[in-house]
Amino acid sequence: MAKIKHNNFLDTVDEVITNATKAGVLHLHAEGTELTGRKITVNGIKSYHFGTTGYLGLEQDDRLKKAAIEAIKRYGTQFPLSKTYISHPLYARLEKKLEKIYKNPILITKNSTLGHIAVIPTAVEDNDAVILDHQVHWSVQNAAQLLKIRGIPVSLIRHNSLEMLEDRIKKLSDKVRRIWYMADGVYSMYGDYAPVRELISLSQKYPQLHLYFDDVHGMSWKGPNGSGYIMSMLDDLPENVLLFGTLSKTFGASGAVLVCPDKKLYRKIKNFGGPLTFSAQLEPSAVAAAIASANIHLSQEIYHLQNTLHERINYFNILLQKTNLPLIENNDSPVFYIGTGLPATGYAFVKKLMNEGFFVNLGLFPAVPVKNTGVRITVSRHNELEDIKNLVEAMDYHFPKTLEETDNSLSRIGKAFNIDINNGSEKVNSSAELSVTYTETIQEIEESYWSRLIGHHTILDWKGLQFLEKSFGNHQSKEHRWSFHYFIITDQKSIPVLATFMTGALWKNDMLSPASVSKDIEEKRKSNPYKLTSNVLSMGCLFTEGTHWYLNEEHPLAKQAIKRFILEIESLSERLDTKMTVLRDFIKEPWLSELFHQEGFIPIEMPDSCIIDDLSWENKKEFQERLSSRSRKHFRKEVLPFEDKFEISILSTPTPDKIQYYYQLYKNVKANNLGLNTFTYPESLFENMVSHTAWEFIELKLKQTNQVVGIMFCYKNDRGVYVPSLVGMDYDYSREFHVYRQLLYQTIKRARDLKMKRIDLGFSASFEKRKLGASIISKQAYIQSNDNYLLEQLDMMRNE
User: Which domain of life does the UniProt lineage start with (predicted)?
Assistant: First the structure.
């Protein structure tokens, strides 16, 4: 069977960023003829700047500016030569000063991103392994990807999970020489810290463990001589630790610095560290500015600067405690994160603050999970206490208004971030003009009513759902035990606006991953069948595809109905304790994509859906004439000549022995098609088909061997839709006799004989189905995950 196509992560990110740009909160341009640090002009509004990462304000220090200007006059705008050959005259002075700050050997890199690319592939050897905190900065994760081509295992653990780290160390300890754990010192979104002392203790317990810290957001404002957060937690830097600081951001200049106490490793990195060898060195102006900053760091002045910043941080914390603003992490870093949950709330809140003259940053996917969108505020020495007070007052005023305007609430935000928020008598936003009918069985919905709304799609008619409930509602195996949830939203006149059904079920996390990823994971599942699986709340179920909802788009309350539905499934997800919610099988519509994104969902590309909606031909000749010229050649060469090789039977009640054999044929196909990796359905499902009047079986028996080599399991929707739901084949004969193509053709013939209106051919093998006249429809799903860990874990496996 042909491979299905898979979602491109970059396409998803592109769509999210594009939406944020359209909302006017990203890809902005500062205006004006100068910058002071305290204020910044955006869209004609002069705003107080609460978005900088120059926490001490040194980028505006006259000493750094004068040093940079003087260096340009003396040495030019750059020294265009690799530092391996020769450094320009200022480099040695800067290196000596940085060694005094860190009391260890250092290397200067062009920036931290290139620095990680230089250091990680050199420091990590072929018999090592790497474990990444899943919130470690992208630049570290990107550099670690380079290790995979050398066969070095690279894996993720959940953020700051020492228990998960220790478990991973135990599993790797007898397989590798060294184990590198890579983390940030201060995390750039929430401003929280790595558990440094606990990690050092763990490395003492497991000598194989080496630590690699990116501390660029902890630099200068913390630590002895501004050496950073990591150094503030340690008396000395152990030899098993590599530390990255920055000469940009708070340091006020440009570049990055690696601190390497292991002198042998230091020499290796210096002699051949990728970009260290082949990239141009820092410009004289940047080095001169860094020297001026280093002089400040090596003086008592740095502690005065740190204390001044801490006064502002403490003041901000005190003011925030007097409000109901949902601060996600309480700490003493200059990074603050006010959770908004929904992107729509984040966009609106940022816009209100910008209009009031406060520039802040938006935290959004993929930097944070999409439902953990929020406002990232950074405090610097540029901010006066009065500025901070005014910002808090503006946030306190606009936040509840923004929640109300975007149908959000503090309780929803608390659930999204898994924190307790005292919301008092908070008003729950839901339209009084809409009513919700909820049930857990199709039996409680009138058959004709349901069929009129959704029943004309695949196996989604009333009888089909009754069949699915019987097959999966109370199954003994947890992977086949699904819960069913039906929603019908109506207006005050009982006119339906939205209807759908959801299922709660155990999914394989790699269901839509490339077959190569699933193949590796399936090997691990031989010892643990539930490895990398999660409880998921999904529109439709794993057995169905197609249009899973009814939406009256012309109704004036259509968008409100969608928002109400999302509120309902948020509560359902919490009750079922699911890790992900999936709304699936939509034809891409910009307005719907934007709405789902604003409500906390990200788009992913689904496999193509295939349908045939013209069955009006009378004979084979007419059928061929409707195919493209290329498909006609395929039909004459690979389908027609083999039809006489088979005895074709249409069965409604095959014997138990036959069902057992059909089931083996189905399992053959399932094992051979990991492109859509689900659990293998139980044999009881196929037994239930026999007793259900809507199911029939198209059997292909090879005449020369009298052996059944192909089976199509077909559902007859009572609204005139024929649904070949599953297929089974004997692969010993499939290629020679083109069994799958013949099954497709016989399915089309059968649907025509039954005078069906349409064939829903489902996912996958779209290339083969197109050759027999199918129309290919691109489909999209929208997902909401509790965190990004599962997505990033699979994306990392995808790139191996």
Answer: Bacteria
403 and 478 inside one domain = no
If asked whether residues 679 and 544 sit together in one domain, one would say: no
Q: Residue 240 belongs to what domain range?
A: 62-297
pLDDT band at 584, cuts 50/70/90?
Answer: very high
- Within a domain: 393: yes
The per-residue pLDDT for range 585-610, each reduced to its tens digit, is 999 898 999 999 999 998 888 888 89
CA distance 563 to 610: 30
Residue 625 shares a structural domain with residue 656? yes
The answer to whether 483 and 442 are in contact (CB under 8 A) is no
Contact 694/464 with Cβ under 8 angstroms? yes
Q: Is the pLDDT of residue 7 over 70?
A: no
DSSP-assigned letter for residue 201? H
Q: What is the pLDDT of residues 531-569, one digit of tens each?
A: 889 999 999 999 998 899 999 999 999 999 999 999 999
Whether 427 is in a domain gets the answer no
pTM of the model: 0.86
CA angle 252, 145, 213 (to 5 degrees): 40
Which of 297, 316, 343 is the C-terminal boundary of a domain?
Answer: 297
DSSP state of 252: S
Clarify whether residues 714 and 769 are in a common domain. yes
Mean local confidence (pLDDT), 83-88? 85
Whether 201 and 347 map to the same domain: the answer is no
Interatomic CA distance for residues 61 and 70, integer angstroms:
15
Q: Pinpoint the alpha helices (H) of 124-250.
A: 138-145, 162-172, 196-205, 229-232
Annotate 46-68 with DSSP letters as a single string: EEEE---S-TT-GGG-HHHHHHH
- Number of domains within the chain: 4
Domain assignment present for residue 430? The answer is: no
With a cut of 70, say whether residue 208 has pLDDT above it. Answer: yes
Cα-based distances in Å from 405 to 346, 359, 398, 402, 429: 12, 21, 10, 5, 9
597 and 678 in a single domain? The answer is: no
Domain membership flag for residue 112: yes
Closest CA to 497 of 545, 433, 561, 442: 561
Collapsed DSSP state (helix, strand, coil) of residue 735: helix
d(CA 645, CA 799): 44
